């Protein structure tokens, strides 16, 4: 989807389950490559590196459980999720990529 703003933006958003299943959103596929590490591949490449934001999904997690955007390119983004003790762990998350 493209919206009119200061610049023309492509937006991809989604929700991913802890097991790596897409539960909401379109325009991407997700691959869980290891515990807490997910690769989101965009169906259509961005023109330049997108800005990506991710956050934990659900009320059962502690405030210290986390989601980290580890790497973003025009084609894909790596998201790492972790437990409240700082150890990598599977967590469901939401994301939005704009660019």
Provide structural commentary.
The radius of gyration is 13 Å and the shape is elongated. The protein contains no helices and 9 strands. A hairpin with a 3-residue loop joins β7 (66-72) and β8. The chain has a single domain, classed as Immunoglobulin-like (Sandwich). 0% of the residues lie in helices and 54% in strands. The strands form 2 sheets. Strands 1, 2, 3, 6 and 9 form a 5-stranded antiparallel sheet that branches. Strands 4-5-8-7 form a 4-stranded antiparallel sheet, with no helix packed on it. The mean pLDDT is 93. It has 99 residues and is an all-beta fold.
Can I get a quick summary?
This protein has 99 residues and is mainly β. It has strands at 2-3, 9-16, 22-25, 28-34, 37-42, 51-56, 66-72, 76-82, 93-98.
User: For this structure, what is the CATH class?
Assistant: Mainly Beta
N/C terminus separation: 11 Å
What is the percent of helical residues? under 10%
Low-confidence parts: none
Q: Mind sketching the topology for me?
A:
Blueprint: E1 2-3, E2 9-16, E3 22-25, E4 28-34, E5 37-42, E6 51-56, E7 66-72, E8 76-82, E9 93-98
Antiparallel strand pairs: 1-2, 2-3, 2-9, 4-5, 5-8, 6-9, 7-8
């Amino acid at each position: 989807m493209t919206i009119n703003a200061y610049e023309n933006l492509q937006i991809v958003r989604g929700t991913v389950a802890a097991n790596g299943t897409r539960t909401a959103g379109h325009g991407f596929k997700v691959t869980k490559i290891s515990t807490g590490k997910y690769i989101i591949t965009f169906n259509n490449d961005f023109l330049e590196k997108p800005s990506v934001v991710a956050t934990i999904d659900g009320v059962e997690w502690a405030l210290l459980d986390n989601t980290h955007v580890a790497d973003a390119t025009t084609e894909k983004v790596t998201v790492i999720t972790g437990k409240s003790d700082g150890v990598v762990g599977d967590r469901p998350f939401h994301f939005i990529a704009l660019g």
